[in-house]
Structures are given as structure tokens and as C-alpha cells.
Write a structure and sequence with these properties.
By secondary structure, the chain is an alpha+beta fold. It has three domains: about 280 residues, P-loop containing nucleotide triphosphate hydrolases (Rossmann fold), CATH 3.40.50; about 70 residues; about 40 residues. About 35% of the residues lie in helices and about 25% in strands. It has 15 helices and 16 strands. The strands form three sheets. The protein has a seven-stranded antiparallel β-sheet. It has a six-stranded mixed β-sheet with strand order 9-13-14-3-15-16. Strands 10-11-12 form a three-stranded antiparallel β-sheet. α7 packs across α8, α8 packs across α12 and α9 runs antiparallel to α11. It is globular and about 85 Å long. Keywords: ATP-binding, Nucleotide-binding.
Length: about 450
Amino acid sequence: MLRSFRVSNYKSILTDQELHLGPTLPDSAFDPLTVAALYGANASGKSNLLDALRWAADKVSDSPVQQLLTGDSSLRTPFKLSPEGLAAPTVAEFGFAIAGVDYSYGFALDDERFIEEWLYAYPNRRKRILVEREQETIRIGQSVENHREIAKLVKQVRQDRSVFTVLRDLDVPQLDAVRSWFDGLVLSGPLGTVFWGRADLEATIEDDPLLVELARKADLGIRDIEIAERIREPREIDLREAAALESRIPDLRKRAESQFDKRKRERDINRIQERASQLRAPRVERQLMFLHGDSLVPLTLGEQSSGTIAFLLQMAQLAKLLNRGGVMVADEIESSIHPRLLARIIELFHDPETNPKGAQLIFSTHDTSLLGTSLGEPVLRRDEVWFVEKNTEGASELSPLSDFKPRKGENQERRYLGGAYGAVPDVDTGSLLDIFKRYGREAPAGEAPSTT
């Protein structure tokens, strides 16, 4: 489980900011927490904090995804509003627990190279070095099996590549659990934007009846979900292709060649016959069918609304995550999700029965109903709420709701919207109205306002 993530000098984040998932309330059901929510005004840096987590995980996996998304081949995107950010390194660190043992992995880098890198384990709360790097000097801890041989292998690692990405490719038992932990991160934008094919969705629905039950309870009009099978006879074009393939067989058999070539020709003939048989055979097609209304009218996936499809994709991701454990990071989680449904999703992570592996959900949102009592008891605990706000230098700063020491029973939604916790836009509604009115009056009748 993720215990903490800290980062400095990344996009709008200048000084060290840490998202800490250790509970601060005495009645904590999980250690660490399974939910963390980020609130803040537009452009406050919420997305940048989550993006930093994705970016840091991308460095661990040595994946080109971030480079493809940004079109930037440099190692980082530092804070650019002051000389301090351009000159200082960018630092990121994960704190996490695996089977009761704490770990920390982190690095510091500039535009061209890794300056530092470390991976520590803390069995019985005692620090054990697994990997340490400082400039070109790389140390493999003595507790790592075959550490001398591994040290020789990583000695020449490129300066723009992390040591851990090299170790991922080696069979190092002490690092297998760490590699698996990073593989368990699910990093997405708005929940449900990870691309799923129909086959993936069908397999998830077949394997997990929970998904069907959730679709029934979500008031989508769906009474049940089935996977229908139908036999499709071969098309005329398939039959013609099969005949054309088989017409080549007599010519192949007439050729008198060496014994080696004869065996090769026989293999070619067998492949042609196998392909022709496939083209002539009826095909079994599988299709998701959604039964709607009291009369159970079957509709295909393509006939569902975009909201229903988004819900199914979201639930498919969540069902897998809750079954296996791991961490999901989602930006703007409320996109296409009704507040009542979002509240129920968060409850899945809170309940040990539905979340036995301790899966975690970290998200940004503008949905303040999760803070208040309009849905009953507040959906989010006080130690699960964080605020992101920019200071006068334009740098994002992170602070937990618990720092404000809210009283039990306090209407946190009302106080947040009223500005008591900060992290809200400083917008004068009256001035906006004046601007729009003045802008409209300046435009001649029937003519678009000038933008110059």
C-alpha cells in the first residue's frame, strides 16, 4: 500500500510537497488510508500533483508514455516561474508497504541525468540499503542476492536511465515484490479513460458477477447482462478466398524438388488447407447484451448511452483493482459520474469486506457534496481530504484538512465553499456580471463582439 508520495520542483510544484496517507484519526480502519481526495481551484495544481505521481512511476517502468504525451524528450518539467526551479533538481519519492515491510524509492534528476537514486527496505524498522546511486557511483546492498555480480552489470547504466529499470529486467528475488508493487499502479485521467476493448469488458463481466450487480443497482435501466452467442455462416468473400487458396495445391504437388523442399511444400499445403477450412467453417460470435426494462429487451453495447458505457468501464477497472489490490490515481473523478454513485464507489474502498486487499483510490475532484451531509454522513473522512492552492509566487502547496482542526459535525462543505480552508477561486461574481454586461453593450446589434 502507498504510504506517501512527495515531490519538489515539478511543473507548478516548487518546494517539497508530500501526500501522506497515514491516518490522523484514532478510529482508523486501515493503515494506511485507502482514499485520498484533492480539492482546489482550477489551475491550483491538483492535476500536476497527480501527474507527478504518474511521471515518477513512468521513470521506474522506463516507459516512453510521458514523452509521447508531452512531446518533450527531457527528463523533467521543472518549475519555470523562478530561477530557483530551473537550477534545482527535481525530486520524487514513494513510501509504500509490502507484506508488512516498509520501503522507500526515490530519485533526484536534472534535465539530463539522474543525480541520486535510492531504494531502501525497513524490516523491523531498521534501514536496509537495496540500491543507492550518487552521480556515477552505484551501490547494491549486501542483502541483495548476487549483489557483486549485479553491481558489475549496472555499473555502466546510462545517466539518463534509472538503475531500478535495469534491475527490473534481472531475476533479483529481493526486488520482485517492489517491481510487482509498481506494476499494480493504475494511472489514469478521468476514471474510465483507460482504453478497454469489448473483449476485455466481456471477460470482466464473465469473471466478476459484482459488475453485473453494480449495473443493476446503478439505476441505468439495466436488469441483467448476458453474453449472447450466435452462429454466423461463412460469407461469400470467405468462400472465394478458400477456393483460391486451394487452387494452388495441385501446382505445389507437381513440383519435383529435393527432399528438404518436399517437406517444406507439404507444410505449405497443410497451412493452406487449415486456412481454407477456417474460412469455410461457421463462426461463433459473442456479444454483450443488456436486458432493459420489465420486458428484458436486449440491447447491444453500441446501443447504450455514453454515460452507461463510462460507468461500465469505470466499474470494470474498479472491480479488478478491488480484487487484486493496488493504487488507482484518477484526475477529475466526478467526470460522467453522479455524486450519489461516486459516494457509493468511495464506500467500496472504505469497507474491508469489499476491499480485502487494501486497494487505494487517490483522486482530484470539485464535488463538494462528498464533504457535506447532503448525502447523509460525510462520505470522506477528515484525514482523507487535501487542499491544493497556489501561493503568491504561483507555486502549488498541499495541506490536509486535518491541519484546520475541523470540529466534529462541522459542515465542511459549507466552510470549504466559504473559503475557510482556502483552495477556492478568488472570483468576484459581481465583477464577472459587469464584464459580460459591458462586453455585450459594446457589440453592435447583430454583430459579434470584437476581441481586440
